Amino acid sequence: MNSMMTDLPDPHGFFGGSSNRGHGDPQRLGYGGRYVAETLMPLIGEIETAYDEARADPVFRARLQELQRDYVGRATPLYFAERLTEHFGGARIYLKREDLNHTGAHKINNALGQALLAQRMGRQRLIAETGAGMHGVAVATVAARLGLPCVIYMGATDIQRQQPNVQRMHLLGAEIVPVHSGTATLKDAMNEALRDWVANVDDTFYIIGTVAGPAPYPRMVRDFQSVIGVETREQLLATQGRLPDTLVACVGGGSNAMGLFHAFLDDDVAMVGVEAAGEGLESGRHAASINGGTPGILHGNRTYLLQDDDGQIRDAHSISAGLDYPGVGPEHAHLHDSGRASYVAVTDDEALEAVALCCRREGILPALESAHALYHAGQLAAAQGPDQVIVVCLSGRGDKDMDTITRQLMPEEAES
Amino acid sequence: MSVSSLNTDVLDTDVLSTEVLNMSNSNTEALIVDSRLTRRFAALRVENRAALVTYVMAGDPDPETSRELLERLPAAGADIIELGMPFSDPMADGVAIQRAGQRALANGQSLARTLEMARDFRKRDDETPIVLMGYLNPIQRFGEDRFLQAAADAGVDGLILVDLPPEHGASLTAKARDLGLARIPLVAPTTPPERLSALLAQGDGFVYRIAFNGVTGSRRPDIADSLGESLIELKRRSPLPVAVGFGVRDGETAAAVARIADAVVVGSALVERLAESGLEGALGLTRELAESIDGARRGES
Questions:
Q1: Catalytic residue ranges of A
Q2: Exposure check for chain A: N or C terminus, fewer CB within 10 A?
Q3: How far is CA B36 from the centre of its chain?
């Protein structure tokens, strides 16, 4: 294993590539960087400096840990999924229960960290984009906790299909701005949040919800999420005296996956990111940027994107709003190119099948996003022996998806 | 004029990185080449008049209308033309330019067609500078070297790349300069002095000063009031002409900006007028803006 993996990105915010950051030579370009409008450049530089100071500050770390424990409810359990394991009859499947966090997903790990940083920097207003609404709920939650006003940008299409989360955000006191531009989903919400930020650089902090965006966001979000992998490592060592053989996590932008993977990058542990194949990679209606995309520049970073021959960003499609994004975090792009992690894709139907199976066999309703990882983990487990250990990041709970799930799996109930 | 474009400030020691500094040293000569941009600004200086820079989106609302608009803009009073390269996700643009880009893309516009438009324009007009403005991804997809060569061949004079900061721009800038393409830097109200040095080191043609923190198309009739000091600072730091854009929507604002800057950029207002009242409406607004700018400095003296 490359022992330098955990040291990335380089000081320019690039993962991989050579030291020449010029353009025109794709072989020499890494992923990441800071491709944003000049108005934002100085502010993003300030965030990087403030973040590096904060992470070295024992007071900041203690405050974050205290809130992680008492407010978020960490550490989350690493749960042996006995009946799922039995079902597949192969490798032992463990679930890292991020669904048991306050607000029901891993998103709050990052929202809390960034909100504390915003407060430390004296920023009085929080903004965020959200797709499924889990990041929006997490930001609205920590904003309420810290007493800061917040504005959430959400695609009009997503507002339709994630009503429970919209209502939660309102109840938490957040202002929700519906985004109608483009495809009215996550990427457009991110564009609109960036536009808000350009206009409000003086007092606003943009809490990006995934391991993408201009440097230092991919690194900062990964660091705040890396608690997932750090705990998993400790928990498995404590109970089983060993490391896992394989880690599996869903990848939209890829924050729960980077959070799980990071603590294991220098170990002999296989890593699989599961993208959303939507209606199938061949259908063109999917959200698999690595499996079905090409490198390009969007939202401040160079990474794999769904785009056409003219460099216009294509619509992503997934049954799960949280994976419905035409890009992926730059560190995943690098892990893919370097071969350190592998990336597969799971369809809408397969994810639904995993939802039903996990409900029936474990009594756990997973988010549609997480169900993509569960499906692939099942396939892997079936092909492996009982001496193998697979850890799946159960990144969130599925209550928010009940409408979609009911319509797809129980159409007769949806109609009644 | 051409000699005065030699930018001695690029040798400031407080640039962002040695990469930037080295690049600027080796390419300083590119700054003194005679170009349509330097000739146009020199002529305007003699006339004591600010330039009217008109932004239109290539292919908006359709290829034919866009082509005709481009061709007739100079006669209506445009001194320099910014031609927008449509992108699906223009994160620094307001609604007007977002919609213009979507209309253009829906009607089949592509980067190749935009370059073709510039080439056709140049066949008929060898005087009016054309500057391409847009985002990096379509250029990357087209191929950076191929794009730069095609732009130079088409008679394009400069590039404004919204999401390419100097930290990542050294290589593209060097290649652009070798081909005689000016890299026009965007300078924001938030830009601190040390960043300004890096931007100016990679910049030529003119400096585009963003009038306020925000996206294109916001209504800010008072922009000229707050700009005075920062423009003086810019002129002290760089011999390049300074254009002011974002928020100029009418003749009155244009005239106020024309009194303190070398060029006035109008984009969203023009794009909106085109959408509302068509080609003649857009040309009418261009004439109105040109008249206001024309009278601005004379009215004052």
A1: 107, 129, 395
A2: C
A3: 13
- For the domain with range A35-65+107-221, which CATH number is right: 3.40.50.1100, 2.20.25.90, 3.40.50.261, 3.40.50.800? 3.40.50.1100
CB-based contact B163 A300, cutoff 8 Å: yes
Look up tokens 């403030």; give the residue: A50
Query: How do residues A335-368 score in pLDDT, each as one tens digit?
Result: 999 999 999 999 999 999 999 999 999 999 999 9
State the Cα–Cα distance between residues A380 and A90, nearest whole angstrom: 8
- A230 in contact with chain B, both atoms CB, cutoff 8 A: no
CATH number at residue B47: 3.20.20.70
Residue B173's domain comprises: 3-300
Query: Is B167 in the A-facing interface, judged by CB distances under 8 Å?
Result: yes
CA-CA-CA-CA torsion sign (B65, B68, B69, B70): positive
CA A389/CA A386 separation, integer angstroms: 8
> Do A194 and B91 lie within an 8 Å CB cutoff?
yes
Assigned CATH topology for domain A74-105+226-415: Rossmann fold (3.40.50)
Residues in chain A, total = 416
Beta bridge partners of B51: B263
Domain extent listing, chain A: 35-65+107-221, 74-105+226-415
Residues of B in contact with A294 (CB under 8 A): 141
Cα Rg for chain B, rounded, in angstroms? Answer: 18
Say what the ipTM of the complex is.
0.94
Cβ of A415 under 8 Å from any chain B Cβ?
no
pLDDT digits (tens, 9 = 90+) for A286-300: 999 999 999 999 999
